[in-house]
Amino acid sequence: MNPLEWVILIVEDEFDSLQTISKILEHHGIQIRAAHNGNECLRLLAEIEPTAVVMDLAMPEMDGWETLAEIRANPATAHLPVVAVTAFYSTDVGEDVFKAGFDGYFTKPVRPATFVNQLGQVIEACKAAR
Hints:
Blueprint: E1 7-11, H1 15-27, E2 31-35, H2 38-45, E3 52-56, H3 64-73, E4 82-86, H4 91-100, E5 104-107, H5 115-129
Parallel strand pairs: 1-2, 1-3, 3-4, 4-5
Helix pairs in contact: 2-3
C-alpha cells in the first residue's frame, strides 16, 4: 500500500511527540488525524477508518492499554493495525505490548529515517494476516 494513501491516527498527549510524529508522516505525504487521549481516539474511530493507529501508552483519561482493549473489543475496529509508541523501553514493556495485542512497538524518540518504512512493514504484515 502506497504511503500517500495512508491515513494515520496519532494518539498522543505530549505536544512535542505529537508534532514530531506528525511532521515525519506529513513529510512523506501521509494524511494524519490526531487525538490527545484514548477517549478522543475512540470518538474519532467512530467517524473514520484509518490505515493504522499510532498510540502512546501513557496518557490521561484513558491510556494506550485501555484504548487498545476497547479497539480490539469493537468488531468495527478490531482489525486495525495499532502500534505503541512509548518512552519506556525495556524487554518487559516490549513483551507486554505484543501480549496485549499491539501490532508494533516504537520507542521515543522515533527515528525519522526508519519510522515510515517500519510502520509500513507493520501495516503490510497486518493486512496479510487478517
